[in-house]
Design brief:
Blueprint (H helix, E strand, L loop, with lengths): L1 E6 L3 E8 L2 E9 L6 H12 L7 E6 L5 H12 L3 E3 L20 H14 L3 E6 L2 E7 L5 E8 L1 H10 L20 H28 L5 E4 L3 H5 L5 E3 L3 H15 L1
Parallel strand pairs: 1-4, 4-5, 6-9, 9-10
Antiparallel strand pairs: 1-2, 2-3, 6-7, 7-8
Length: 251
């Protein structure tokens, strides 16, 4: 059993792997102020009923939480949690100016994408930020784009205006809203969809040919129906963690 943890800005996504099979997913809210003991209890609860893990691996875009998570894994399971990032020897070549600046989640998406398709290929990750991660024809990581995620945009509108409420992301029935909530949802949804389509079209053109595109992240299902040809890969980052652990220990 392998414990895999994707540490994001909104939540820790915890995956339990039995071999190459993902048998459970749980989410724990991200809070750098939370203690290792508290996270240990949450991890133990997420793992309840499963055979104890024999190894633990994680990728993180929240550096202040790294030591806390490592302490939590040690307290909950008696394991050393292995951190994976752009410096890890994963056999991934980088065709970007500053490889060490690539986020761990983007590295892991690229590792999984390479195993699935080789290259060229594109992953769109709908998280707190939405990222486009690209492999070129040789399978090297070629960079991509970063956008604010729709939930982040919704919170920004609420927090930086006097009267706009915080709205949940959903697909509205029309673009012409009849009240403030509908107007916000229309602008957020259709505006965001337009951004995704435009960035995706230009990305595909620059990579050349017809590269496969996969979507992952919590809000991906909300947009997939309006992105023809894009395939769903809901557990892409966790699968990248499993593959990274395999590469590091088995070659």
């Amino acid at each position: 059993m392998l414990l895999a943890v994707d540490v994001g800005n909104t939540s820790l996504t915890v995956g339990a792997f039995a071999g190459d099979r993902l048998v459970r997913i749980a989410r724990i809210g991200t809070d750098p102020r939370r203690s290792a003991r508290s996270y240990a209890r949450a991890l133990a609860g997420a793992w309840r009923g499963l055979r104890a893990p024999g190894a633990a691996v994680y990728g993180s875009v929240v550096p202040p939480l790294d030591r806390t998570l490592e302490g939590a894994v040690r307290a909950a399971f008696g394991l050393r949690a292995e951190r994976v990032g752009p410096r890890s020897p994963l056999g991934l070549r980088y065709a970007v100016r500053a490889p060490n600046q690539v986020g761990a989640d983007r590295v892991l998406n690229a590792v999984a994408l390479k195993a699935l398709y080789g290259g060229p290929a594109i992953a769109v990750d709908f998280g707190t930020a939405t990222t486009f991660d690209c492999l070129d024809a040789s399978g090297a990581y070629a960079g991509g784009a970063i956008l604010p995620g729709p939930d982040l945009a919704a919170r920004s509108l609420h927090e930086h205006t006097a009267q706009l409420p915080l709205v949940a992301m959903r697909r509205p029935r029309r673009a012409v809203g009849r009240d403030t909530v509908e107007c916000l949802q229309a602008g957020l949804y259709f505006g965001y969809l337009g951004m995704i389509r435009e960035v995706l079209a230009r990305t595909k053109a620059e990579l050349g040919g017809r590269p496969p595109v996969v979507a992952t992240g919590g809000l991906a299902p909300l947009f997939l129906k309006e992105l023809p040809g894009v395939r769903s890969a809901p557990d892409l980052t966790l699968r990248g963690l499993r593959l990274a652990h395999q590469i590091l220990h088995n070659g």
